[in-house]
Specification:
- This protein has 199 residues and is mainly α.
- Helices cover 69% and strands 0% of the residues.
- The chain contains 10 helices and no strands.
- The longest helix has 25 residues.
- The chain is globular and about 50 Å long.
- The chain starts with a helix and ends in a 9-residue tail after the last helix.
- The relative contact order is 0.13.
């Protein structure tokens, strides 16, 4: 909801209503883009359809550019943004578990809900499994939280870590996105023979 929730004086009901509208819009766009299909999502692992990576990477870089421009214009203070404390061990483990779930189930949390909303049975099963995992995590949270805090490195950002300003990082990521897009187009052509033929 940020920055809407910080710039508009909304009631709790209005805030929740806005969250529902944004969520429905996000889900609708996911489904229209084909991301409610496990086949579309897992195609990235066979390199013949890189749409998922293109969309996600473009979204990340767009958000990065937007935040930089807003902060430069004085409309947003980067210090107001919440940065998740870094714990390399926990985040590597989380990435492995997330990636394994994505490969095995064919969905990520958001796309599984979009698939479930359109009546896909595999999406429903995946979403139920996700909820079971959330409940299991909640049961073991005290132990996990202690481990995460013990292995934490605090708030780590690329500018703070390298001494290179945010502006240069934005330029680097935009350039990398453009190069990566060309590389992904090459991969799609190279592995196009793996694309299933529709009968």
């Amino acid at each position: 909801m940020f920055p809407l929730s910080s710039t508009l004086d909304l009631s709790t009901v209005a805030t929740l209503g806005l969250a529902v509208v944004l969520g429905l819009g996000f889900g609708f766009i996911l489904e229209r883009a084909g991301f409610g299909s496990a086949r579309k999502l897992t195609a990235v692992f066979y390199f013949y359809d890189m749409a998922v990576v293109k969309v996600m990477f473009t979204a990340i870089v767009t958000a990065m550019v937007g935040l930089f421009l807003l902060s430069t214009a004085g409309m947003l203070a980067i210090s107001d943004l919440y940065i998740e404390p870094t714990s390399y061990a926990a985040q590597i483990l989380g990435g492995v578990v997330f990636g394994a779930g994505f490969i095995i189930g064919g969905y990520c949390p958001g796309t599984s809900v979009a698939a479930m909303a359109t009546g896909k049975k595999d999406g429903m099963v995946f979403a139920l499994g996700m909820l079971a995992g959330v409940m299991a995590y909640a049961e073991f949270t005290p132990g996990f939280e202690a481990w995460i805090k013990a292995t934490g490195s605090g708030e780590v950002t690329l500018p703070a870590l390298t001494g290179i300003s945010m502006g240069w990082w934005v330029v680097a990521f935009v350039a990398f996105l453009l190069l990566a897009a060309r590389g992904m187009d090459w991969l799609q052509r190279k592995f196009s023979h793996l694309r299933p033929r529709m009968s």
